[in-house]
Automatic annotation (TrEMBL):
One Pfam family per UniProt: STAS
CDD domains for this protein: STAS_anti-anti-sigma_factors
Domain STAS: 19-123
Alphabetical list of InterPro entries matching this protein: STAS_dom, STAS_dom_sf
Protein species of origin: Mycobacterium paraense
Stored PROSITE patterns: STAS
Protein's UniProt name: Sulfate transporter
Amino acid sequence: MADFNGARLYVFARSLGTVLRVDGEIDASNADDVAHAVRQFARLKSPLVLDLSHLEFLGTDGFRALLVLNHENQRSRVHCSVVAGAALRPLLRIVRDHGLPVVGSVAEALQLIEDIVRARRELLSGAVRYRRPLPDRARLTAIPS
């Protein structure tokens, strides 16, 4: 747990990614510090779940930092889901084209990550099966006369 002048960051390592839960308030006094801490975990390149469901207040500086973090994660190809709560929902209603990957719960976010991992594995296993070279006997019988 880390405390940022009214915002508390809790870190939960899961097999599918890292859950970062933020409690308290994010405003102009701590938005940059909270964003900096989230960036440290994004550098690990594993999926993130940013759980804001327990946040009591999110000011415009905090919302702006969240949008910047989302853009940075997309650019660096780090999957990040945002669990919205009472503090974030009013801002999401005002700013319609926010682009945030909002989910309803941490469980939903982890299921999404699991689905993505499964789909990639299936795609890769299909590509490997497709590219597998034919055995020598099969090549000989496959050559047209």
